[in-house]
Design brief:
Elements: E1 5-8, H1 19-27, E2 33-36, E3 40-42, E4 48-54, E5 57-65, H2 70-88, E6 94-97, E7 113-118, H3 132-142, E8 145-148, H4 151-157, E9 164-166, H5 173-177, H6 187-190, E10 196-200, H7 209-218, E11 223-227, E12 244-248, H8 255-259, E13 264-267, H9 282-288, E14 293-295, H10 299-306, E15 311-313, H11 317-328, H12 335-342, H13 347-367, H14 381-386
Parallel strand pairs: 1-2, 1-6, 2-5, 3-5, 6-7, 7-8, 8-9, 10-11, 10-13, 11-12, 13-14, 14-15
Antiparallel strand pairs: 4-5
Amino acid sequence: MPRDLVCFSHLRWDYVYQRPNHLMARAARERRVYFIEEPMESPHPLPRTTIVVRDRVRVVTPWLPEGLPEAARTRALAALIDRLMLSEGIDRPLLWYYTPMALPWTRHLANTGVIFDSMDHLAAFRGAPAALLDLESELLERADLVFCGGASLHERMRQRHRHSHCFPSSVDEHHFGKARSANTDPTVQARIARPRVGYAGVIDERIDLELIDGVARARPDWQIVLIGPVAKIAPEDIPSLPNVHLLGLQPYADLPSFLAGWDVGWMPFARNDATRYISPTKTPEYLAAGLPVVSTSIRDVVTPYGDAGLVTIADSVEDTVQAMGQTMAGARPSLGAVDAFLSVRSWDRTWSTMASLIAALEQEVAEQPSAVDIARVPLTLEQRLTGELPRVVRSTARPERRVSLGARREAS
């Protein structure tokens, strides 16, 4: 029987549907999965959790009283995760981390294995906590497996962890392939004239707003459609022009119908510290939708997509306008070439390979008695009120696991 999987994420489940959603939904087909979101604040005086089910995944939101000092927050979150383990009967789960910031309140947990899925270099993002890099180093010491969301991230991790594996952004070809035959434009987009250049994703410090402004001014007859939430930047910083249309966050289920109404899929990423390691999920999604794609020179887009002739790379306003004009005139890769390239890059295939590595880890652990034994007593009412951690009955440090795992290999 597969062990439960407890995932700690910096992203919320009902935000942009991306890597954590795809992978955890697939994991939930074979085991119980608990997706722990970052905590929310509440006027309620007691820490608590709420659980909703999405795609078979149990999405857990911790709620903390407003204004708790950092140390008290850590104690309260540790107590909440202990109560979750007890109430749900979770015994030595797999611990899956997207954010090292969860370590202070989870490092005490007995487990079957620790997985770090490094989907972004979070320390380079605007507003990143000062402790993040130190906690990342600790997580790498604790991790049994490290998965990397792109080649650049893997380059960064492979020298730091001997079981680092590259799993670049993948795609649900069936879902986005619906765009190739869709004939209904969403109401919010139907009023926008053609041709349309579209971007779908988070709009934050990683987006080159000056490039968007320059292209919009250079070609006022082209309509630029921006789909997604605005984060960490002021909404007024987004170019306010008649041909720039900000449509906000749209449901994942509806994205193919939006993409079907575009003439070009665009990735106007800035070239800065926040984009140095990104491997945009939208690259294969645009291609699966049948769109010609233009992108700035993001390393994990240039190689392999640009090198394979599937994406046109352009950084300046002049080069971008020229590239878009050529694609609109018909200069685009064949769908056959696109489909052949994407055929080995599905989320199903990615999860299948990850699952084989996890199964090997679980088998190895099952055959070797663990030296980690942490038992906790149930929380008293006083502990619930104060956030005091329950007493540790016995705890020893995790030994170095000698994991050979013949199934482990670097994924392409």
